[in-house]
Amino acid sequence: MKNNQFGRIDVDQDEEITELKAIHFIDQDLIADPKAQFEDFLRRSFLISNQESTFQQKLGNLLATPNQTAADFFASAEPLTLDIFYLIALQLLQFESGIDFSVIDPQAATAKINLPRLALDALETSADVAHAWYSILTAHTKNGETYLDHLTQQGYFTPFYATTTAPLFFNGKAQAVFDPHQIIREIVYVEAPLDTDHDGKRDLLKAEILRPAQTEQGYKAPVLYTASPYNQGTNDHWGEQVTHNVDIPLTEKPVNHLTREDVTAKPYDPELPPERQVKGQAEHACEHFAREQPYTLNNYFLTRGFAVVYAAGIGTRDSEGLRDTGSVAETISTTAIIEWLAGNRRAFTNKTDNIEIKANWSNHKIAMTGRSYLGTLATAAATTGIEGLETIISEAAISSWYDYYRDGGLVAAPDTFQGEDMDVLAAEVFSRQKDLGDALKVRSKFDQVLNRINHDQDRQSGNYSRYWDSRNYLNQAKNIKADLILVHGLNDWNVKPRNVANLWNAVRDLPINKKIILHQGQHIYINNFRSIDFTDMMNLWLSYKLFGVENNAPEVLPNVIIQDNVEPETWHTYPDWQDADDEVREFTLQAKTLVDAALPTKNEAASFKDVLDPAVFEMYKNNLTQWHTDLLNTEHATNGKNQMRDNRLIFKSAQLDHDWYIDGAAEVKVNVAVNKPFGMLSFQLVDFGDARRLNVTPSLIQPRSLSGSYDWRTDDLREFTQQKSVTPWKMISKGHINLQNRTNNYRVDKVVPNQFYDVTLQLQPTFYHLPAGHQLGLVIYATDFETTIRGNQDLQYSLQLNQSHLKVRLANVISDRS
Questions:
Q1: How many CB atoms lie within 10 A of CB 521?
Q2: Which of 6, 77, 102, 634 gives a 20 to 30 Å CA spacing to 412?
Q3: CA pair distance 532, 519, nearest whole angstrom
């Protein structure tokens, strides 16, 4: 395996000694003899017993040389060498002999594994040994954590609990010196500047707080805040009931000539009831809770001096108001919690007594964390420029709700959620429904909200509108003041990559720090990956942003990190994503081929249909994997015949003579006609070539093995591994467009049957390593069973091939192979 460490910092050796003293690996002075110093470091790291016999037993389990145990070595007069140090260190780091390293030449493995290299030719002094030990403590084990975190899980920092009054930092990162079993759990109700349930009172929002016990003695904690509409429960059955039927025909839309101004949202300016009259002050909350729905990254930081806050927002259980997906009110309910944490808003101990409580334990520095809807609300909050929000770690987040539920004038479902829409999601997270007495007061009002959403989301047209514009956070991106950590899967077809790509482009020139990490996953978290030190990076970042530690995090952490899709456990840094200096390669479509646009072409045409035999149509609806296989399959047939053969066109380039790195959004331009006054096109960019690719989802490496703290919540260790068998293709990207929206997403043009039109669109952005010997493919079809509506209509499409083109952008600067 290979470690990819980006969160480790280099400090001078004097600082290393100081930090080793701070975490009690050195008491006052180094031991004069280097060998004895190394033995002392080992003694302090073997935590399971304080008996000398047990220590010697554990040393006997380690090899120091190919023919000598560590116990025998330390009992001998032989000097400590780098080979001996590295052989012992590799075993401590849980790497395996014969797989990861050779006992004959352990130093050779350090480059392969990517361990920190020592700037030493020999271990001549105890200071040299201390430097080497510092490097090992900050190196990652084979099992996804630094060696110091591994020791932490065994209880290394538990003796610190009794005397901890402030955070402790090592290698620029906060350490687990706060006892997780002494955490204070309390609930407050923040008064938001909203009255979304129109009861004449401002909405109160429940916030669940977990904070170190030391905050009762004056310690001020920074806050990790996760806004999760799901964490008070969901209404899955109700969501299924209101899910929309997608097996409906595409229809002709009335022509319009709307301008951007016509679809620009109006300012949100509701009339508000007055604030509550405060009737008293309280130092402590009167309501508590036993267990929240946690995010494991937050769990890691709870023992490192951070407080964690969860809030579900308006319309959720124990809060007031009504849910309205993506609305400005939803953003305000998110930022109201930040305002209270920063000392700029009121909260109360309960919803009736008007007893105010302040966040006196907060240091007024807040970061937001979370994935999907959670990351979306972090993005939304950041676009307000709110005071106190120092940074967001936004994973798989929506930047425009139109780009989540629509594409190119079409209703386009997020992956695996056909029929979901804004109203369905609102019903799912309206968890006030779970308390029947509370729901009695507001259910009829919420039904009115659902009816309004159903009307305004306009599934009939799929057009961009003022409704969608009010839910487009990119409009306010210029207001962002918080630094951004953006994380997204290049294979995320739920929150598609366009969401993070558009946000990255929108903030490119803002005077803030912004970092992006692109992985090969779908809609997942990556803080439990073995191959990248994501948690360490976030520790470095949050220690810098919220504690003010001078660890050079903005310079240390690369701006762009991308996981390779060919080499397992490989991450590279790049100067940018969607780089303006990329090389543009253009192809012209010809019969089944993609031809370099500089070469001569023939005047050729091709056509395909969209209708299927009803039995086949039903089969594909219930077997999307088979549909996708048949869509791309050019070599083999299903049941003797590929049912999609006449329902799509496939074009392939020549085999590549060298690796390509496709960067950003491919652009497709087709000259197309359809036999009806309406139509749609779908496209897939495909890697054709036999290969053992990465599995679609991360593999479980070790269950419940990660914690970062002693006797505390755990997480599974995961990693992308290679498939056992060869596959002939992989989808790189996709895109869809309504032919009546060929100008833009809000203007509707006329389609005259059998008349040719130029239609241009950009596919979802990506970064893709296309290996030599493979072919780049473009697949053109109409109904996308995974994404679009499915009418099974008798539509016939024709293309003028020599007037149809594909452009891809290739990264000029290949990674620095960090």
A1: 23
A2: 634
A3: 10
| 3-state secondary structure string across 198-251 | CCCCCCEEEEEEEECHHHHHCCCEEEEEEECCCCCCCCHHHHHHHCCCCCCCCC
Q: Which amino acid is at 401?
A: W
Count how many residues are written for the chain.
818
Catalytic site positions: 372, 492, 523
Q: Are 499 and 488 in contact (CB under 8 A)?
A: yes
Residue 147 CA to chain centroid, in angstroms? Answer: 25
Q: What is the DSSP annotation of 703-763?
A: EEEE-SSTT---EEEEE--B-SS-EEEEEEEEEEEEGGGSS-SS------TT--EEEEEEP
637 Cβ contact partners less than 8 Å away, ≥ 6 residues apart: none
Residue that is written with structure tokens 């975190």 in the block = 149
Q: Are strands 362-371 and 355-357 parallel, antiparallel or unpaired?
A: unpaired
**Cβ–Cβ under 8 Å, residues 242 and 386:** no
If residue 63 lies in a helix (H) or strand (E), which one and from where to where?
strand 63-65
Q: What share of the chain is helix, strand, coil (3-state, %, to 5)?
A: 30, 25, 50
Phi, psi of 117, deg, nearest 5: -90, 135
Per-residue pLDDT of 126-152, as tens digits, reads: 999 999 999 999 999 999 999 999 999
Helix/strand/coil for 337: helix
Q: Please, are residues 223 and 336 in contact by the beta-carbon 8 Å criterion? A: no
Q: How far apart are CA 735 and CA 737, in angstroms?
A: 7
Read off the pTM. 0.97
Cβ atoms of residues 417 and 494 within 8 Å: yes
Q: What's the angle, vertex CA 145, arms to CA 140 and CA 147, rounded to 5?
A: 60
- What are the φ/ψ torsions at residue 174 (nearest 5 degrees)? -70, 140
Is the separation of the CB atoms in 498 and 397 below 8 Å? no
Q: Using an 8 Å Cβ cutoff, are 799 and 670 in contact?
A: yes
Q: 3-state DSSP call for residue 346? A: coil
Spatial CB neighbours of 80, under 8 Å, sequence gap ≥ 6: 34, 35, 38, 123, 129
Q: Is the pLDDT of residue 120 over 90?
A: no
Residues 6+ apart with CB under 8 A from 770: 656, 659, 660, 661, 662, 687, 732, 776
Residue 446: Cβ-neighbour burial (10 angstroms; 0-12, 13-18, 19+): buried
Task: Name the residue among 364, 304, 319, 91 with its Cα closest to residue 227.
Answer: 319
One-letter amino acid at 121 equals D
The letter for the amino acid at 230 is Y
Across the chain, which distance is largest between two alpha carbons, in Å? 92
Rg (CA), the chain: 29
- SS3 state at 574: strand
